[in-house]
Amino acid sequence: MDLTSILFLGSGSNLVLPNLVEATVIRPRFSQIEITSEDDKFATIEVGSGVEWNEFVQWSLKNHFYGLENLSLIPGTVGASPIQNIGAYGVEVKDFIIQVNAYDFTERKFVTYSNSDCAFDYRHSKFKESDRRNTMICSVVFKLKKTDCSDVSYVELKNYLTENNLPIRAEYVRDAVVAIRSKKLPDPKVIGNVGSFFKNPIVSKSKLLKLQSEFPNIVSYPYSDDRFKLAAGWLIDQLGFKGHQLGEVKMFETQALVMVNCGRATRLDVENLRDKIRTEVHKKFDVDLETEPIFW
Ligand code: NAP
């Protein structure tokens, strides 16, 4: 097998492909969900990489294991979840992963990665780096809580529960996330898209202060110590890109951060709109946008 060209495919929901894929495509279908240990407070669960992420979230809540409810409805497989450290509504999967089991096609052996080996970061991990391209994730081991203590720090989530008179319980948080996402984000099975197309940029405090003096309404959130997260969608929206079409792609009408396929998009269409937005954002805000999906 030519090791320089293996494409591991989950469900392709965070992947931008060339028009022609000249590679051996491997789609892992490992489908086990196994509780490997349990005490009063936590359960350790090993899940095959081929399991659909949202089905695992559903399974976890049905079995009274908590923590993943904010990550409901994220498209893709369990095997893809550590690759970009999926996150939504203040929760990141890295906080629940204790081990990733994989097969390294270069070394021809099974390898295990602890949480710290994975080098998780904001929508990033070691598995996104090019030297891990020959690593096939077989299963992911999660440690989930047995007490229901959902995070509803995101205003949209809290408001949904308040408006619908729902208590802060994992099952309702899941319902809220499903309702909000379904209203705002295009279903990739209906309208082709890879979710958030750009990462939210992280900037220093001095950079934020400079931006705020020029753009008082700029949306930002504390990230860590002296760093702040800017809402990339807001930056893109300010430049009038919401609903903007170039070739066969456009930025979605209800969320400027999502690029959608209008029907017959090519890789070049995707790259052209990506480059146009990056150039304009840089020109206006002096901020560099990084893409979130993997360009294979
Ligand atoms: P939104 O509510 O319009 O908010 C815009 C951005 O502000 C989000 O990207 C979010 O950052 C940030 N934000 C909002 N409230 C925050 C808070 N209390 N503390 C810190 N940061 C806050 O975002 P949206 O597009 O509807 O998405 C809602 C959530 O789903 C977000 O967490 C988003 O990341 C997630 N999502 C992920 C994907 C994906 O492909 N990975 C796709 C769609 C949505 P964060 O993105 O860092 O949370």
Describe this protein's structure.
By secondary structure, this protein is of the alpha+beta class. The protein has six helices and 18 strands. Strands 4-5-10-8-9 form a five-stranded antiparallel β-sheet, with no helix packed on it. A hairpin with a 6-residue loop joins strand 16 and strand 17 (258-261). Helix 2 crosses helix 3 (170-184). The longest helix is centred in the last third of the chain and has 19 residues, at 267-285. The protein is globular. The model has no long low-confidence stretch (mean pLDDT 95). The site of NADP nicotinamide-adenine-dinucleotide phosphate has 19 residues, from strand 6 and strand 11.
The ligands found in this model are:
NADP nicotinamide-adenine-dinucleotide phosphate
Range of strand content: 25-35%
Mean pLDDT: 95
Largest sheet data: 5 strands, antiparallel
Spatial strand order of the main sheet: 4-5-10-8-9
Q: Give the termini separation.
A: 19 Å
DSSP strand tally: 18
The helix-strand sequence is: EEEEEHEEEEEHHEEHEEHEEEHE
How many individual helices? 6
Rg, Cα atoms, Å? 20 Å
Estimated structural class: alpha+beta
Coarse shape: globular
Write out key terms for the chains shown.
about 25% strand, 6 helices, single chain, binds NADP nicotinamide-adenine-dinucleotide phosphate
